[in-house]
Fold each of these.
Amino acid sequence: MASFPNSVNENEIGKAKFIGELLVPVAPFDQKSGRETWTVAFAPDGSYFAWSQGHRIVTLVPWSKCLKNFVGEGSTGVGPQQNSEGGTVVPVGEPREHTIDCGDIVWGLAFGSSVPEKQSRCVNIEWHRFKFGQDQLLLATGLNNGRVKIWDVYTGKLLLNLMDHTDIVRDLTFAPDGSLMLVSASRDKTLRVWDLKDDGNMVKVLRGHQNWVYCCAFSPDSSVLCSVGASKSVFLWDMDKYSLIRKLEGHHNDVVSCEFSPDGALLATASYDTRVIIWDPHVGTVLLELAHLFPPPSPIFAGGANDRWVRSVAFCHDGRHIASITDDRMVRFWTIDEKSPKAIAPLINGLCCAFSIDGSVLAAGSRDGSVHFWACPKGIASLQHLCRMALRRVMSTQQVQTLPIPPRIRSYLSYQDL
């Protein structure tokens, strides 16, 4: 049973609206491990939704068609085609449901696009095997064997096979600036930076984690990378210099998920210690803690096995809502100005979550290979919040603190009122 702060009546918390699910065919062998949906992802242009449905398979579904099916018919079953090359041939530019056989269990997924166009950082620009156009949409998959495979989303064709990790590639993230710089996080305790515009050459190995790296995320301006992992670790990296900026300390157990707010002013991290922490990444301070157990557990309890492990956290694109997936069979929707959930919904064995590009839908993957969808709680953002987001997209906390404005406004712009 979910636990909430005693100042909040559980009956006052709304119930999130369930809108549909994507299921996979059930076979006897599917009862074994390997069928988990470890990751879900939306294409940056909103054209596709992808999820690892278990047993090496990634399914890509046109998001508009998927959403229309939910609205018109409820849940949708998935029985897609495959081919021996790893995908189904699809006309370029025409979104169509198809699958990719990645050859091994898929742990990480990330869409990449060269829009907005940005040149490669590599010195040798005379010749490249691949030339990515603005209409190109790529899918990176992180596999159980340590490989990272890059696919053309429209054709299902394998473009690159990146081999350097020595253990499971747990997560992947593309720089949002269209540079096609890809970062992979692995259980081999490293992060590796790849330049896909330079034929997938590895640019840098980021070392510092003493244990598994679970997740990584770029800031919206692509200048900072957050990586989280076992042993309570939260690292921030300067992606211009490929150097460590700082370590954030505050969790009591493994940290398994992270994401920046759309304006880059906030960073959310999820941990097995039953908490989601909202940080100011510019100065490294804790702004808010979202507790999934009340009263708050002792560090000893939080640092061990408990039934409130937070598996995943996602920031909505409105900058106000956050979703979390926990082992207590619940998905929670939060707002950044409240310490208790705004809405909840049941979810058995949830593993991961992500918001759609417009922020209206949350997708959550589970251990049985299925994906469930909920409508994000609706609300109209205040003009103050919209102005704050616009300002924080171009100003750091340090810059805000130097503005000649009243302290109360400065505090609001710095998110210190959370």
Amino acid sequence: MEEGVVNEILQGPLKDIFDSKQLITNVSGSGNNWAVGYKVFGSQYQDQIVEKLRQTAEHCDCLQCFFIIHSMGGGTGSGLGTFILNVLEDEFPEVYRFVTSVFPSGEDDVITSPYNSVLAMKELNEHADCVLPIENESLFDIVSKINQMVTSGKPGTTVKPESLVTLNEGGIKKKLQEKPFDTMNNIVGNLLLNLTSSARFEGSLNMDLNEITMNLVPFPQLHYLVSSLTPLCTLADVNIPPRRLDQMFSDAFSKDHQLIQADPKHSLYLACALLVRGNVQISDLRRNIERLKSSLHFVSWNQEGWKTSLCSVPPVGHSHSLLALANNTCIKPTFIELKKRFTRLYKKKAHLHHYLQVDGMEESCFTEAVSSLSSLIESYNELDVTKGLPVHDPLRLNIVI
């Protein structure tokens, strides 16, 4: 909501991407307070938001879904972001709502981020169709890996000097070493580019966005998908020799390529989608799924829970790429850690008065939110208990002739 932040974008290299008539700003932000974002800005700007959403939706021939891209730790992203989620459900109930949520790290500089995140989580649980959680810590680790490749001086490893990713403030190396927010945001941007590639380019096996929700979300509450991208270096405009195709599939299941701190290989899969771009055949997909299947743990009732997509156009400068989306219980530690951080603050009732002085905000909002998070964690616990149980062949119908 801060005018200065939006004006910076409008004066930068991405200014032509956004329609300035569709932007909504205030003089200041929400002061790291979910209640201000949700209760104050939400009611204040609701009509304006609905009007601008309708204007944009009217231009669509085939409206598939809405993307909400927000951070959970601050006040505006968590509060107004989840308020808009409610508005979308009311105004466009038939249209899927995809949310990309950036979770704060343990060393977050916003003291109230556990409150904001847990309050936002309740809204995500109830009103999102599909959530792609991302952690700042993972994004930073990926940027560090890219930085190592840039500074190692290996042959073929260079950064394009005019990259939009790194801008030109004080040189590329300095930018990567200090606060690499541009590169971190670019990783999220590339996630969305790969996710929407089927809608924008031709392919032998295209996948609609609504198919992701249909195939990867077996229960309404368990709609959190862990994402991984490979090759990572495409994310920071780094030119390095391409990964072998089979290696690319292996990378997608390694913890180093996940956009949250998680290890899906050692947790339980409910379902998994592979969105491949470039010169890849269906036989390549099948071969790699068969190769990897034995090392992955799927729930007993969905052993064949794979969804695949092939888009013939690769990312610029690469022969192929892969986005893996996993509905996997490895997301559970992220939620447990968030609950711990919330409880530490809430036990002391620290900073609570800042929230309770906002009209319409009551202490029950906090207890309901943490109860919703506990219920989600319990759902994952119940699934984890089934890991390792023997898989029985489904009963077949015998027809007597």
